[in-house]
Amino acid sequence: MVAEKETLSLHKCPDKMPKRTKLLAQQPLPVHQPHSLVSEGFTVKAMMKNSVVRGPPAAGAFKERPTKPTAFRKFYERGDFPIALEHDSKGNKIAWKVEIEKLDYHHYLPLFFDGLCEMTFPYEFFARQGIHDMLEHGGNKILPVIPQLIIPIKNALNLRNRQVICVTLKVLQHLVVSAEMVGEALVPYYRQILPILNIFKNMNVNSGDGIDYSQQKRENIGDLIQETLEAFERYGGEDAFINIKYMVPTYESCVLN
Prior knowledge:
The protein is mostly helical and 257 residues long. The chain contains twelve helices and four strands, in the order ααββαββααααααααα.
């Protein structure tokens, strides 16, 4: 009877309830939430009631690839190149220990093109400057070496490094004008060279009302790719445009228009 009286008094006078009891009474009952099941798309689990389908992984088309040790670095560190670094008022340049015209282009030019993947000094400087020097003085020695240059060019572009791509594009522009028939000799290799150019073709810097200094330095990838494709078309002969268009569908002719 005493217990019943205490219970009745608590119901009649809620102010006399213990604090802990009042807090428990005020808290809402926990709502049971079903556990979500993460699953791959197009699977049996994906059809279940509480499943959450995981999205597809990023394609990574613009993601930079890791660099690998180059043959150019190995030969340079062994001292196999007849070159040295020379400083003058205009900056650094290569001092050739032999006449460039007398070099074995089948041996040296592919090695220097292999150095296009380099991004650290002095390897990147020697590789890039060496290529331009050899293309400047190569003449009829360049054309027979074209098949050996394709894999180094492809490897450099496949790194997807913005700096390396810009340098390689400038080298390609120099290559097509370095000797007769070089532009036409590159046409069969468009399928190996142009896929990366197609990916980055529309990558331009949107600076709004500001000044895009990369255009002055010729480091805007989209513009460089357009220039390179136009050079390929001009010097690649009558089959150049259709082959460029096949690999880069958005390209419009600079000759036919």
